[in-house]
Amino acid sequence: DEYYKMQGLFEKAQEVAVYYGFTPIETPILEHEETFTSAVGVGTDIVDKEMYTLKTKGGDHLAMRPEHTAGLMRAYITGGMQALPQPVLMYHSGPVFRHDKPQKGRYRQFYQFDVDALGSEKSIVDALVIKTIYTILEEAGAKDLIVTINSIGDKDSRPAYLKELTNYYKKHLKDLPEIDQERLKTNPMRILDSKDPKTIEINAGAPDPMNYLSTSGKKHFKEVLEYLDEMGIAYQIDKTLVRGLSYYTHTVFEIIEPQEDGSMITIAGGGRYDYLGKMIGSKKDIPAMGGSLGMDRIIERPWFKNLAPRIMKKPKIYFIQVGFEAKLKSLNVIEILRKAHVPIAQSLSKD
Predict the structure, then answer these.
(1) pLDDT in tens, 70-111
(2) Residue (of 151, 170, 264, 272) closest to 214 by Cα position
(3) How far apart (Å, rounded) are the C-alpha atoms in residues 159 and 161?
């Protein structure tokens, strides 16, 4: 049953993505380890704790992909996709792997569906990605979704913000848990992503990245919000939203579903990653925007519509054969019916 649910969700997501102009791509499960260490970033949980790595007999250091985006950017660069008309819009899905503590909604092998637009810095591309993912969730049965959104700035505005943020955390150093004290040395913005109650309290008073945006960064973010308003998509600006990966810049978003007990479940997220290309070997920056939804999490939700995949054919006939002579002919008869597009139920092993 779960297989069919996953297949049905994939086909629905694929259908929506195609209507919005995205085309398919598949990237390898195994990539060179540095594709992720240079992109996702040291100081992130994924690289420090959760990535499955291996060394081949030939001495190559490989990793099982912990997320799709870095491998997609690598494929865009090595596949010469810069020569195509830009932006290149792609969707992809498949398993990703993280050595996490397995629990409900969190698995070591889990499935994501991603939509990405590479090669354009325009704000409408951000809106297109958010709208596509939002629509997939609605078509799967989700209701009352909220987009939480933030802008974490570009390379012109980030240094001033990071300096202010670091100074703020230094004032609260003794109250920060050990893990966040470590993050302060490697990746201060990751502290904003902390789930520790103490840190959450400290984060409430942290400097607002909005106050440090460059003129172009402010304009970009304002336009993204105007597109969301125009489409009637409800959103909340969350100044602590940074997403857990080093490559994000400008727009970051999560799509959350409020629970009856007041808690929130994140079912999708993403953002702009204009500097990822350079991190993994491009000579110049490649503007890009993407988003991803957790398929396992969606099919477990009580609202999930049981989307029937195209592979499912309801039997029109129950096929019975009596005796060995009939059994000899049975497979050929089933083939005749298959060619005539007549699905059957059968119990050939019975007499």
Answers:
(1) 999 999 999 999 999 999 999 999 999 998 777 666 789 999
(2) 151
(3) 5
